[in-house]
Amino acid sequence: MFRNAIAAVAVLTTCLLNARAADQPPTGQLPRNVVPTHYALSLTIVPERDHFSGSAEIDVEIREPVSVIWLHGDGLDVRGAELALADGTTIAAEYQQVNATGLAKLALSREVKPQEGTLRLEWTAPFSSELDGLYRVTEDGEAYAFTQFEPIAARKAFPGFDEPGFKTPYDITLTVKRGQAAITATPEQSREPAGEGLERVVFQQTPPLPTYLVAFAVGPLDVVDADPIPPNSVRHRPLPFRGVAVKGKGERLHYALQHTGTLLAALERYTGIPFPFPKLDIIAVPDFEAGAMENVGAITFREYLIMLDEGASMAQKRAFAGVVTHELSHYWFGDLVTMPWWDDIWLNEAFATWFAAKGVKAVHPEYRPEARLFGRILNVMDSDSLVSARRIRQPIESSNDIYNAFDGITYVKGAAVLGMFERYVGAEVFQRAAHDYLTAHANGNADYRDFLAALSSAAARDVAPAFESFLNQSGLPQISVADACANGGDRLKLSQSRYLPLGSSGDARREWRVPVCLRYGDDGQSQERCLLMDNREATVDLEFCPDWVMPNAGGAGYYRWTVTGDAEPLARTEPADSESRLREQMAYADSVGAAVRAGTMSVADALERLTPFAVGGDPLLAELALDEFRFDIDHLTADAAEREAARRQLGRPLLPALLMVNLLPNSSPETLELRRMLLSFATLDARMEVLLKQSAKQAVRWVAGEAGAVDPDLLETVLTAGVLDGGEGFYGTLAKRLDGSLSAAERRAVIAALGHATGEKQVASLHELVFSKVVRSNEIRTLLEAQAAMPETRRANWEWVKANFDRLADAMPAGHAGRLPGLASGLCGDKAADEVQAFFEPRIEALRGGPRNLAQALEKIHVCAAVAAKQRESFARWLARQDSHAERVNRLSRWPWAAARAAFALVGQ
Fold first, then answer.
1. CA-CA-CA-CA torsion for 101, 779, 800, 730, nearest 10 degrees?
2. Quick one: 116 exposed, middle or buried, by C-beta within 10 A (0-12, 13-18, 19+)?
3. What's the predicted TM-score (pTM) here?
4. pLDDT for residue 433
5. Do 1-216 and 477-589 have matching folds?
6. What is d(CA 700, CA 691) in angstroms, rounded to the nearest whole number?
7. 3-class DSSP state for residue 907?
8. Where are the domains of the chain?
9. What is the C-alpha R_g of the chain?
């Protein structure tokens, strides 16, 4: 009996401790003692007003005795709150927001035992002043309301359990002005008068959704009914499909409505799962922080991405295909199956990035989406080499960690690791694993363990340890391949370390379990050998001693590499006759640039290797070479005179290639892109006078309204040349074009060009534009990033940003303001890093995602300083040799200038 009494006291003590703990504000996820099971939301949204209002009935399951219910609400004026129980009892409640991130406390008037109930709340709130939550946009005198709830802004529109782990059905009613459009996840069910010129719109119940995938769009919108997307072998019903834009712009959605269905069907074929929701709307939003958002049934996009006019540029068509397919991919990876918490957001974004490339390839192989993705992967390796880089699956300890999770590591490195393991287990096995994962967790939640279990099951081997070595640690491997043939054996010796650039404080001894595929050859033979390198060193026995080795066959592995010994790293004369071979050449070009940044190759040697890629005819290879050229001009020159010499010498070899591209008889996507890329570098980076002058003339003709004056693919380059060469008069005239007559693509090009102001009066005009109503809040960063990218304006731009910091942070969307430290990342020097740190230290906590963004900016500045200190002397010697050679050539030939004169004919075509 005594023992029973002690046990009873222990149980009572535990209950009291748990109750006290439940009363304390949670520091991370909400407790699971109260779980929502259904929402009935009713909102009155009239965008002309300053406020909106709403009421909610949230059915909940109470799993433990509670007197406090924790939920979310940010900036809501909750006038009434109560808990209704199944027996008819009503419990009064007091609502209070307890912190700036929107954690809210619902204090009940008495403790409630485990049971089911319904939370009832009523509120009003101002439209969000940021481009998140429920916010207002005004265009041509008309007011609209749109939403952006991901990641944690649904709480700005309605109180609820604003975490991805809570998925429930929703019944939604919107009260709007009579005759105006009202859009959410599901089709309209009914519409009836609601008094005072209003209508009440009731929608069909949604499938289970997390809060962040709910969306609203309200206003005098153009709603364009398209033909339903037809059934196919996977989906046996037609899918209702519409396009939505602000008033007067609906006709610009024709291209998007015509081409979305085929992209969606490609994704259905791969997954074997039909589109999982009842309808699809694509919505063009004028002022939008993100590029696009995969809201269920109502995907929102920046206008540029789905408003394609007649004769749209190839770049805009590729952007449309890539982003639309990315967002549609989320309907399986994220919407149908949702991660429980933000540390697994890679299950959404990495999958959508990887899957979108497959979808686009199935419909538009000419866009070469997988090779383009590989280019992005090589780029993100630079970010991943920083000590401040995130993991793919980064622990979430604050709201800043949530916002930082939407970066290149999550999207692109995550996609790279998926692709690497797809090759490791086989494409069919990986496809089966994806299908099994999606069907097993449809309409629910799943984390990384669920996916890795599906992958291991399909592969009939445990791949989790190797996959997790990339998932749960930052950085990337460097695989060193040593040719051992010279020692009497046909073998290769492999070792791994962590790739680190000069100036890094990272630990080079970090290890991964790396799926490595080697391709090697001799006298026309080509073989592949794959292995899982799960130790620091490995040996590979070969059938013969190779003349050359490619350590990343097909560019499928997420690692950098070096080759030592007699075997060349790649037969560089081997044609890139397939996308796989092209990726190998891209990997080679990246290895050269990476060696420069690591200090293991001189920049002079690198330029000798990369220049052939710049002029060799493939834009994806040219881009990698030109990026190195830009860094060298920008950071390896000691003064303005040396910078001009660098521009001249690095631009010179492009002129014959530019002329040749112009003379090619075809207009393939690759030719058009190479033309744009070479012309842009020669004109804007190398600042070749003849091209600047001719481009500026074309810009004047375009501004004057001359039809066909500029090829759409070249518009941004031409207008930027006009800004660089045309003076204050042209600048002012171009700025006046920022009106409703421009297409989304034209506006984007104009904003990009205006960011390249250089003269004192031009820069003053740019600063006026930044705070004017002419420039949208989501365009401010574009203007300032262009200033930060140019060596002539970088320092002055940084000083201006410091002087106007508070005003800038208020004018920009919160997510953009959080990236303000990035405007200083182009500075190069340890003193500059100290200056940037001193400025931001007292301000950084107030910026969304600011601490990590600052850490990365500071590390980039230090790395740049270390690379410049190592490579400047080598670059100066290279320039001296080029000047001497050019002088001899110029005495014999006027070819470079003849090429330049011929090349400018590109601009007007």
1. -170
2. exposed
3. 0.94
4. 98
5. yes
6. 14
7. coil
8. 1-216, 337-471, 477-589
9. 29
- 669 neighbors 367 (Cβ within 8 angstroms): yes
Around Cβ 100, how many Cβ atoms within 10 Å? Answer: 10
What fold does the segment set 477-589 form as a domain? Answer: Immunoglobulin-like (2.60.40)
* CATH fold for the domain made of 337-471: Neutral Protease; domain 2 (1.10.390)
Q: Measured between alpha carbons, how far is 194 from 89 in angstroms, rounded to an integer? A: 30
Amino acid identity for residue 586 in this structure: M
**What per-residue confidence (pLDDT) applies to 16?**
43
88's CB contacts (< 8 A; 6+ apart) are none
364: its two tokens: 């538009």
Q: Which pair of structure tokens corresponds to residue 15?
A: 């209950």
CA dist 122 and 383 (Å) reads 46
Backbone angles phi, psi at 520, to 5 degrees: -145, 160
Strand partners, 243: 224, 282
> Burial of 181 by CB count in 10 Å (0-12 exposed, 13-18 middle, 19+ buried)?
buried
Residues of the chain with pLDDT under 70: 1-22, 484-489, 566-577, 663-666, 885-909
Which pairs count as long-range contacts for 703-708, CB under 8 Å and 24+ apart, including other chains? 703/730, 703/733, 703/734, 703/737
Burial class (CB in 10 A: 0-12, 13-18, 19+), 666: exposed
* Residues 505 and 548 sit within 8 Å (Cβ to Cβ): no
Whole-angstrom CA distances from 248 to 142, 224, 245, 303, 305 are: 11, 11, 8, 13, 17
Q: How far apart are CA 386 and CA 852, in angstroms?
A: 12
Position 665 scores a pLDDT of 62
Return the CATH number of 1-216, one of 2.60.130.10, 3.30.457.10, 2.60.40.1730, 3.30.2350.10. 2.60.40.1730
